[in-house]
Specification:
The chain is mainly α and about 60 residues long. It has one domain. The chain contains three helices and no strands. The protein has helices at about 10-20, 20-30, 45-55. The longest helix is centred in the last third of the chain and has 13 residues, at about 45-55.
Length: about 60
């Protein structure tokens, strides 16, 4: 039996993350003071990690 090497899509979580307007999210956060005390973990990374943790039940 021949294996299909063409992956026709991405997981749903990856598709949802690609829909996010990253520059608009960062601009919104910076304009409203959300990035004041962050060094490495900005609002965009937080927005990506938290739903993943909920989906994978890491709470």
């Amino acid at each position: 039996m021949r294996k299909n090497s063409h992956f026709s899509g991405q997981p749903l979580y990856g598709q949802v993350i690609k829909l996010l307007a990253k520059s608009k999210i960062l601009d919104f956060s910076r304009n409203n003071g959300g990035e004041g005390y962050t060094n490495r973990f900005n609002c965009l990374i937080h927005l990506i990690v938290m739903p993943y943790a909920v989906i994978m039940r890491f709470y």
